[in-house]
Amino acid sequence: MTSTTDTPGAPDTPGASGTYGELRAQLATLTTEAFRPELAEIDRLSTEEIARIMNGEDATVPAAVAARLPQIAAAIDATAERMARGGRLIYAGAGTAGRLGVLDASECPPTFNTDPAEVVGLIAGGPSAMVTAVEGAEDSKELAAADLDALKLTADDTVVGISASGRTPYAIGAVEHARAQGALTIGLSCNADSALAAAAEHGLEVVTGPELLTGSTRLKAGTAQKLVLNMISTVTMIRLGKTYGNLMVDVRASNEKLRARSRHIVSLATGASDTAIEAALAATDGEVKNAILVILGQVDGPTAARLLTESDGHLRAALAAVRTT
What we know:
The protein is an alpha/beta fold. The protein has helices spanning 20-28, 47-58, 61-66, 69-84, 95-112, 141-150, 169-180, 195-199, 220-239, 256-270, 274-283, 288-297, 301-310, 315-323; strands spanning 89-93, 119-123, 158-162, 184-189, 202-205.
């Protein structure tokens, strides 16, 4: 199965904008589409040589992300502020970019015990586009607007449009529609001066340069997008009190591995004996954060639940409340 990216489709694709010549001229301006003549005979190299070149290319991505950390941090703070008011984090993209958004969203419930509706990934063409290309879906701004309308978008929500090229109509349409509804908007692209970044309140342009394979933005651009999406969701959840230090205290223990991890987290946070940990988890219906508060705050389960509610789920704040009473 071939992997699609968020670059434009063929000129006869339904809904595609402009002519073949116009699209070709647009692509010629994008660094993610640039041809690298020094790699023109890469197929004649040994496997190890190709792997070494590719690894060297990948090593440049963190620096490209680092160059945009102030802008990324500002976008995260704005996102956390909206989510603290009950808003949602919504990713929207096509092809590889859309899949990365869906992936990041799907990892939030088991990692941070979020409701599946709190962090949502939209991909042009719907769920089937996760594994099969849906022709023309990325070329429709209207489709993006309809997908957001189906979620009943509010002004407390944050919409992150994702597109390596920065010109994908679906991602731009999502950002434009969300901004018109008063939602916070972030545009994540891998080209400078992109239409997507211009359409968003927070434009994040992580310029990763030409790809090893010309135009294959699932490579460096995709890696950069994953790094930034990891930051957006993870740091937002830290700001919302979903962690205690670097411990995932809101982890959902939905299988044996996670149940074992839950006990390990309580142990790391409290230093308590196995017997005390089991008793605390039993008193809190298996909620890790509550169990830690039971042990460290020396309170019962219902009191721990109340204190965490009063502190908006922030364990440090709940512990401070115990110590001042």
